[in-house]
Amino acid sequence: ALPLVDATVHRLGFGAAFQCVNGIAFGYILIKLLSDNLNVQIIHFVAVAVVRCYLYAVTFSFLPRLLSANVVGKGTGFLYMVGGVASFLNIPLNNMVLTKGFFPPNLLYLILTIPTTFMAGFVQLTIAKENKAKKEKGLIVH
Predict the structure, then answer these.
(1) pLDDT digits (tens, 9 = 90+) for 35-51
(2) How far is it, in rounded angstroms, from Cα 73 to Cα 45?
């Protein structure tokens, strides 16, 4: 999936790459919600692997563009800390699975792709504004 990530970032930009993460995540969560067929779940497994690869590669490629070189490591550590703390939110969802099944938590994950889609759109618009301002000043645009 890495060549695909590279092609997406170079041709369409970081915002579109983040949108790809959301689109693939939406698809694999939808598969998880609608199918219990093992053959279809294999597609789900592959999609999960692609989403993880995309998310990791795009996030940590975008981070140096967002932060200066001397704080990229601190930014990476902060992202890992936020992810670790946020993973504690899975504890109540795991308890819910024991009583209500997998549908409610999976539906929640599907709904959570909506705000992340808006955030990726915001990133896309911000990058476009920055590139426009750089072009007007005659600076190099990546």
Answers:
(1) 888 888 899 999 999 99
(2) 31
